[in-house]
Amino acid sequence: MFNLEDHYWWFVGRRRVALALLKSAMHGRPNPTVVDLGCGTGVVLRELQSWASPTGVDMSELALDYSRQRDILRLVQGDGTHMPLAPNSVDAFVGLDVFEHIEQDEEAFREAFRVLKPGGTLVMSVPAFQALWGPHDVALMHFRRYRRPELRRKLQAAGFTVDRVSYSVFFLFPIVVLWRIAEKRKKGPATASLVRVPEWMNRMLIGLQTLEGNLIQRIDLPIGSSVVAVATKP
Questions:
Q1: Which secondary structure element, helix H or strand E, spans residue 156, and what is its range?
Q2: Tally of CA atoms within 13 A in the half-sphere of 69 that contains its CB
Q3: What's the confidence (pLDDT) of residue 165?
Q4: Strands, E, within 3-79: which ranges?
Q5: Largest CB tally within 10 Å, which of 54, 81, 122, 199?
Q6: Do the Cβ atoms of 155 and 126 come closer than 8 Å?
Q7: What is the pLDDT of residue 43?
Q8: CA distances from residue 208 to 10, 119, 161, 199, 212 in whole angstroms, order as listed
Q9: pLDDT digit string (tens) for 128-149?
């Protein structure tokens, strides 16, 4: 991840979608405080630093070490169900492909709600459709994939007002389905799959994901291999 996140289309496109939604939700608020749960190797935190005051939370000391290599200093070790952060303390909360790794995901949604200030915003993404479950999910230690109504229900149960829930990776969804079917037929140990693509295709895919991000700010896309959501603490 540390070597790929700067340029690989999946990582670049995912954070462009999420950060565009977050900026829109902040309505120009200067230097908002933002928590990035499951901050990994710190690339989202690095981009947030240009316009926000971010804090990274990750349960892995290895991940936090990689984040420090990006000159990220505000880092906390903890997991999504027990964060060492004060209640009502941050303006925004970001969780990109992290809640599927947490067995008690509803508890993690309540914890995000606890940490946010009233009026604060949650922006998140998770993998979609249990029918797409395969070796990639096993290798990455996922507990589930989501449908849009399920995610809306769980966020509302945690106390959130749900502003937007949309599928993403819409244009590439047929290719993802075919790829997952092929993966399921492979024998051997489960491995995570990040397909190498030529540079011209990588740029094209980033552009496609950027287009999707612009669409998601206006409409909910009807299908895709991920779900993105924006929710508010009343």
A1: helix 148-157
A2: 11
A3: 97
A4: 33-37, 53-58, 75-77
A5: 122
A6: no
A7: 96
A8: 11, 32, 29, 14, 6
A9: 999 999 988 998 999 999 999 9
Q: What is the pLDDT of residues 184-203, one digit of tens each?
A: 877 777 667 678 899 999 99
Residue with token string 């990582």: 11
Q: How many CB atoms lie within 10 A of CB 103?
A: 11
Q: Is 221 helix (H, G, I), strand (E, B) or coil?
A: strand
- If 0-12 CB within 10 Å is exposed, 13-18 middle and 19+ buried, where does residue 82 land? exposed
* Strand-pair partners of 131: none
User: 9-232 belongs to which CATH class?
Assistant: alpha beta
Residues 203 and 211 sit within 8 Å (Cβ to Cβ):
no
> Would you state the pLDDT for residue 2?
87
| 199-233: b (≥16 Cβ within 10 Å) or e | eeebeebbebbeebbebbbeeebeebbbbbbbbbb
Enumerate residue ranges in the chain where pLDDT < 70: 190-191, 193
Domain boundaries, the chain: 9-232
The secondary element (H helix, E strand) that includes residue 213 is helix 199-216
**DSSP β-bridge partners for residue 168:** 226
